[in-house]
Amino acid sequence: MNDALWPVVGIVGGGQLARMTYPAALELGVRLSVLAAHPDDSAAQVARDPVVADEKALDDLEAFAKACDVVTFDHEHVAQEHLRALEAAGVPLRPGSDALLYAQDKVEMRARLSALGIPCPSHRIVAGPGGVASFLREHGGQAVLKTARGGYDGKGVWLVDDVTPAEVVAEPFRAGVPVLAEERVAFRREVAAMVARSPHGQAVAYPVVESVQRDGVCAEVIAPAPEMPEERAVEAQRIALTVAAELDVVGILAVEMFETTEGDFLVNELAMRPHNSGHWTIDGAVTSQFENHLRAVLDLPLGEPQARAPYTVMVNILGGDLPEIYPAYRHVMARDPGVKVHWYGKSVRRGRKVGHVTAYGDDLESLRERAWHAAEYIRGDIDE
């Protein structure tokens, strides 16, 4: 195969999302070039000739982009001024800076979605603890505070009420960025609607999933979301497809939502890249989110997003008390050959995502038990 005739996709960021994109690139026959901060980053361990550079430096980004036909991302943290400079130099960024702004800045996201009529929690920017107190009085004495930029996996988010200590209420304002106060939504569960969209507007929607959070971190994903009527699932997909089209997102878009106790949907967060809520697709869908992300950024026809089985369960493996997890991994493989374990190449640290387990089939409760058993055994929470 003549490499010169095949496109090169550059991915900024060397985390586990880039790592899981690499097998999809191999299967598609395209070259994936990874810009990683360190040679031992998750994706740098598997990529061909990874570029080790500083993604915060425009010169490094420009040098990296020169060798790529299109550039995409495994996170949303590249500075807007750098993104716009790359675009001004003619670099195809997918998604582009205009779209990424709404994944980077929660204030901008809320304003744009509200203008589009997309349902969101009640919210407003607050200036200091006094503004928080006023918001609490108007919203039943409870609120969620979020820094406009930089939060993820529960970081940059504070749950407060009218008896929260003053120092906790003041904490979000120390970052020096705008703080958003949102109502504490009474919800039945959290769900995610994922779509892939290409530059010419083709889009496909994955089954809507239920996302189970623990301590602000995604612990489990169930695909499809159990006991969700078809018309409600279609509505969640419609919201995600509308957001993708109106914001001109290219690639994967994950729209995290609250399903309220009344059965309505309120958009919580946006991610414009492969997302934890879509890891189940590696084993459980005809086309994984990683393959469809590459297809989309290259403007290739998108792959079928349908599930392979009635249910797929994904459970994150978090670092625990076992410093060496390989023996536990061997035990899990022997005990249940039907589960799939995916590793991120990370050192073990308590609470850190080091991999995930997937199981798929017909019996949801059995799948959940098997996936959780594997994850908890590897973590060291159980010993049999």
Short description:
This protein is an alpha+beta fold and 384 residues long. It is 32% helix and 27% strand. Helix 4 (97-104) packs across helix 5 and helix 11 packs antiparallel against helix 12.
Layout of strands and helices, then pairs:
Blueprint: E1 8-12, H1 16-28, E2 31-36, E3 51-52, H2 58-66, E4 70-73, H3 80-88, H4 97-104, H5 106-115, E5 123-126, H6 128-138, E6 142-147, E7 157-161, H7 166-170, E8 179-183, E9 187-197, E10 203-205, E11 209-214, E12 217-223, H8 230-246, E13 251-260, E14 265-271, H9 281-284, H10 289-297, E15 311-318, H11 326-335, E16 340-343, E17 353-361, H12 364-379
Parallel strand pairs: 1-2, 1-4, 2-3
Antiparallel strand pairs: 5-8, 6-7, 6-8, 9-10, 9-11, 9-13, 11-12, 12-15, 13-14, 15-17, 16-17
